[in-house]
Design a protein that fits this description.
CATH architecture of chain B: Orthogonal Bundle
Subcellular location (chain A): Cell membrane
Distance between the termini of chain B: 53 Å
Oligomer: heterodimer
Structural class of chain B: mainly alpha
Distance between the termini of chain A: 37 Å
Protein name (chain A): Branched-chain amino acid ABC transporter permease
Number of strands of chain A: 2
Number of helices of chain B: 11
Largest sheet of chain A: 2 strands, antiparallel
Strand order of the largest sheet of chain B: 1-4
Pfam families (chain A): BPD_transp_2
Number of domains of chain A: 1
Membrane topology (chain A): Multi-pass membrane protein
Structural class of chain A: mainly alpha
Shape of chain B: globular
Shape of chain A: globular
CATH topology of chain B: ABC transporter involved in vitamin B12 uptake, BtuC
Strand content of chain A: under 5%
Largest interface: A-B, 42 and 43 residues
Organism (chain A): Neobacillus rhizosphaerae
Helix content of chain A: over 70%
Radius of gyration of chain B: 19 Å
Strand content of chain B: under 5%
CATH class of chain B: Mainly Alpha
């Protein structure tokens, strides 16, 4: 009975998304939304995918990774090669971007996920920089001047990717495997002692996160006409990190809300990039000083609507609100 | 052969700058177990203070170096008191995120205040002659860099091992609670650590400006991360380790760029980092510590 109810909610939200897609597409085609709003909408979509994918790695599994821009870069370049050099269709490019990033995640995840906390952070940061320098040195993808990519990202494709990302990650979180990942976040040694293969689950979460970051990279590349290695420096990783930290480490809806809000704020501040960064950094510091668990902590937005029901995807009590 | 020795000398002088920065990282990590991401930006601030004291105040190189070290020490203590002290009992991740925030704030605050344009560091502030030993030309700049860094490191060793505050620092890094029970003022000791580390970073900033001949508000990021790699390479929290790690990293980098991979130079540090973390996470000088449950 409960399953049927949940399924009803699920299909209901899918129908809502489809209606939303049709309406916004109609508005875009009709010219009601000018290109400024359309660009903002596209950025919001891409940032939601990025935030959700990093949320799986940091918020759910508790592995502090700050090299997410590396996966974004791998996805962007792989998909750009597929469409621009090989001339294959765009959907294939999205999948190729995701798979390439997932492979990169596997290669980097197996050795580095043995590390903990600060060391893992620095190792992933180093990985992100290595990826950037590698692309900088490959002439096939244009080196420092970058690669021009035609604009293929459309609104329905973008929304479809956002929905698939959220559905996959939420379902993963609520599955046995997701519970295993949460147990690793709460206490890795205890999880290990309970018979959970911690390395396996950490790598799995990392690979899934990397896959969706690659998908976001594909959408990003085909939205902005040009990709350059400088777009994927570790400031980009920090941008993604800020979304997850502000939304609440361990809260999917928090990450999505933060992605929407911060994208809108940064669009309005795009003429003053240094002001934007000063505000971001201050928000980050103040947030850690006064509310280290982020806006929503590990709660989901649904837990505020259904009072009495426990939150999904997070711990069930408030005493321990941050990861690691 | 002469080329090789030339590159080695270059590597050692670059490496001694890394070592100076790495010392700050390693001391702070040793005492509060925090990767002070903002350390690279203290280097940048030091470079700018040195630059303005030379150009605006018209001072010589050594007074500028001293002013830069003193101001950076104060700056470091301020960062610690405002941003890190309230988080002393918070989770490691919260402290790390704060450090990233502080780092971004210093970088973009500087850009906001003075703009992002780079400045050319004044040349020939110190009259230097290059030295020639059997065909190998060693620039006066390398010698100066080496002399300054080695004397600062000797001074640091003296402070850590022979003075009262050094003894307190070692005690706090060994066991903070026990040190507090013994009547050591832990907060002051931590502030002193930040002050010493930041003073070294300020000196490194001035030298780095001289070495690269160009400074800008984002110059601290790359040397900062590389110095952190150097600290990990030598074993984080171990002072001789940071020195060795810095020199080693500088030499490796110079050799790679001499071998024709100058574009790959920045990647080398990270490859070294990942290799060391995989094969010897405690660093060259570190001992493996068993984890207690």
């Amino acid at each position: 009975m409960k399953n049927v109810k949940n399924a009803k909610g699920f299909w209901g939200s899918i129908v809502l998304v489809i209606i939303f897609t049709v309406v916004t597409q109609f508005l875009i085609n009709g010219g009601t939304l000018n290109s400024f709003y359309v660009n903002t909408l596209f950025s919001i979509g891409i940032n939601i995918i990025l935030a959700a994918s990093l949320h799986l790695i940091i918020g759910i599994t508790g592995q502090f990774s700050i090299g997410h821009a590396g996966f974004l870069a791998v996805g962007a370049y792989a998909s750009a090669i597929v469409t621009m050099k090989l001339g294959l269709p765009f959907p294939l490019a999205i999948i190729a971007g995701g798979i390439a990033a997932a492979i990169a995640g596997l290669i980097i995840g197996i050795p580095t996920l043995r590390l903990k906390g600060d060391y893992l952070a620095i190792a992933t940061l180093g990985f992100g920089e290595i990826v950037r320098i590698v692309f900088l040195n490959i002439d096939y993808v244009g080196g420092a001047s970058g690669m021009t990519v035609s604009h293929l990202t459309t609104w329905p494709w973008l929304l479809a990717c956002v929905v698939i990302t959220i559905v996959v990650i939420v379902n993963f979180t609520n599955s046995t495997h997701g519970r295993a990942c949460i147990s690793i976040r709460e206490n890795e040694i205890a999880a290990d002692a309970m018979g959970i293969n911690t390395t396996f689950y950490k790598v799995i979460a990392f690979v899934i996160g990397a896959f969706f970051a690659g998908v976001a990279g594909a959408l990003h590349a085909h939205n902005f006409y040009i990709i350059q290695p400088t777009n994927f420096s570790f400031l980009k990783s920090f941008d993604i990190l800020i979304l997850v930290v502000i939304g609440g480490l361990g809260s999917m809806s928090g990450a999505v809300i933060a992605a929407i809000l911060l994208t809108i704020i940064s669009t309005f501040l795009s003429n003053y990039p240094e002001v934007r960064m000063v505000i971001y950094s201050l928000v980050l510091i103040v947030m850690m000083l006064f509310r280290p668990q982020g806006l929503l902590g590990t709660k989901e937005i649904t837990s505020f609507l259904k009072i009495g029901k426990s939150a999904k995807g997070g711990v069930q009590h408030d005493s321990k609100n941050t990861v690691a | 052969m002469e080329q090789l020795i030339q590159q080695l000398v270059n590597g050692i002088s670059l490496g001694s700058i890394y070592a100076l920065i790495a010392l700050g990282y390693t001391m702070v990590y040793g005492i509060v177990k925090l990767i002070n991401f903002a350390h690279g930006d203290v280097v940048m601030v030091g470079a700018f203070i040195g630059f303005y004291s030379i150009t605006i105040l018209d001072l010589g190189f050594f007074p500028a170096l001293l002013i830069s070290m003193a101001s950076c020490a104060i700056f470091g203590v301020l960062i610690e008191r405002i941003a890190y002290k309230p988080l002393r009992n918070a989770t490691r991740i919260a402290a790390l995120i704060t450090a990233i925030g502080v780092s971004l704030f210093i970088e973009y605050g500087t850009i906001y205040v003075r703009g992002a344009q780079p400045e050319a560091y004044p040349d020939n502030i110190v009259p230097l002659k290059s030295l020639e030993i059997s065909g190998v030309k060693i620039s006066g700049q390398s010698i100066l860099i080496l002399v300054i860094s080695i004397s600062l490191m000797i001074l640091l060793q003296f402070i850590v091992h022979k003075t009262k505050i050094g003894k307190a620092m070692r005690a706090v890094s060994y066991d903070m609670d026990a040190a507090r029970l013994m009547g050591i003022n832990v907060n002051n000791t931590i502030s002193a650590t930040f002050a010493i580390g930041s003073a070294l970073a300020g000196a490194a900033g001035v030298i780095l400006g001289m070495y690269y001949t160009k400074i800008d508000p984002l110059m601290g990021i790359t040397p900062g991360i590389k110095a952190f790699v150097a600290a990990v390479l030598g074993g984080i929290g171990i002072i001789p380790g940071a020195m060795t790690g810095g020199l080693l990293l500088g030499v490796i980098e110079s050799l790679v760029s001499a071998a024709g991979g100058s574009l790959w130079r920045d990647a080398v540090a990270f490859v070294v980092l990942i290799l060391i973390l995989i094969f010897r996470p405690a660093g060259l000088f570190g001992k493996n510590v068993r984890e207690k449950v």
